[in-house]
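Reposting from the mailing list since nobody answered there.

I have sequence plus structure tokens for a pair of proteins and want to know whether others read the tokens the same way I do. The first protein:
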Amino acid sequence: MRLSTVILPIHRWGEGQRVWRRAEELGFHAAYTYDHLSWRSFRDRPWFGAVPTLTAAATATHTIRLGTMVTSPNFRHPVTLAKELMTLDDVSEGRLTVGIGAGGTGFDATALGQEPWTPRERADRFGEFVPLLDRLLRDEVTTHQGTYYSATEARMLPGCVQRPRLPLFVAATGPRGLRLAAEYGQGWITYGDPRGPREVPAALAPDVVATQLGRLEEACAAVDRDPATLEKVLLEGSTQERPLDSFDAFVDYAGRYAELGVTEIVLHWPVPDSVFDTDMAVFERIATEALAQLPGGTEPPLGLA
């Protein structure tokens, strides 16, 4: 089991760099940030760009992995995104992990002036987005003509520091997304039931993830892949569970999901006066002591640096 955090891009860098350095000092495996133009209750609050934030974080830290949680086609094109990610992988000296998803219907889903996409169109776009991004990050030159995304002699030199490319973690709960995770992902991400916290009592939340893990195994079997070769990442904060209320509550929470096969839990860095308001002392104790209470401790499951 690994423990990571997601730091919202809400801080002016004078303060933000201290937060990212503190995440490294606390021993988190990775620190991610949301790749949105705005987000829900933070819509009218400060919110900075994900890639510049991660680039700055890469220069302010040394060992912690960095990444998006998650980026999507809502306002990204694979060609320009791949160039930015290749650059960020270089700046971070190979510490980048990219979480990608089909995107939602939030405030920034139509920020470029497009009409809202139907669920089917969103899935169709993601089905093109992931394979093209995979090719761009692997190959020096890519040409592709698609329905939604194309590339003409798109050059990615010198390529990723991590070979054959930086790792992609695919956020998915439906069959098409799970298939993409099985085919292209080094990891899979879930935040629980996509219907939202009001729909599922806290006691049933682990059952939802267990069902998703079963479907992921089926998707892996369909492409002849061993599901044990994927990281299984759980993003905390979108269910009725309250694992950050106390140290013991988190240990119980992490233990339940470790038994299901989750290999990494991502906790939201505390933000006062928000949905992520958490006692910092409890949070830091969880970061430094909780995994030692679990069977297997902090031993990395797949050997990802």
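The second protein, same order (residues first, tokens after):
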Amino acid sequence: MKSKKFYSHGKLLLSGEYLVLDGAISLAIPTKYGQSLIVKQTEEPTLNWKSFDENKTVWFQNQFEIDPDNDLKHVHEDSISKRLTQILNATKGLNSEFLNKKYGFKIETHLEFPKNWGLGTSSTLINNIAQWTHVDAFKLLEKTFGGSGYDIACAQNNTPITYQIEDKKPVVKTVDFSPSFKDHLYFVHLNKKQNSRDGIKHYNKNKENAQSAIDAINKITLEMINSKTLEHFQSLMVQHETIISKITKQTPVKDLLFKDFYGAIKSLGAWGGDFIMVASKNNPSQYFKDRGYETVIPYSIMAL
């Protein structure tokens, strides 16, 4: 039988981190880097899973047995297998026809970015599985990893979007965000993967006066989209950092690590890891490389 292929884009949240959970309007971009899922039907009632990284090296593999009740049993007791079993059983909860046959599947996933980049190893997987099994990706995310869902919206779109939760439902709008100064925007990886669930916990513990912060962030997000100059965009980045630092009681990354940098720096998503956005007149690659941050990616190479 012919194999089927599904694909999802990675994601970066440029504005509205944390507050997006409480209804703020956020600006997000799908990335050129994503993940694919290849599915082939097999005769045996087993699910053979192989995951490849960006270097085409297998980083995970396991065989899952589909028991008589059509639930999955993993052969090895590792954390990835447990998580995958949870995702696939949650999928079955949303589509009772899934795994309800006498056959099985051979599955491969192929990443286009390093796992520690935080571009959405999980969200691209969830969206690919949802496409394959005809379930709602937002509902599957809710039953598994949780979070705002902006990453699923990025997985499904080919242009920048605004993302907002209204009445517990995602509102996704495509936007024309292609600033004239985009050649002065860069993404720098902080050499560590940040678990967004930890950041969310920290935010929930500290949030006070969330509504006034949401109003301010909404204004900043809309101004960012319409910004005409690098200087204006830089000042919006600084304002955004100040608001989030107050609400989460965390130090902005520029104050923490890059005090002497000439330009604006903004954390993205979960503060303290993954990528930061840098806006500067001159190419900042050497500055960051001198300090041990080798991954500096221009906006036009990262953004779809």
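Reply #1 (J.P.):
I read it the same way you do. The chain has ten helices and twelve strands.
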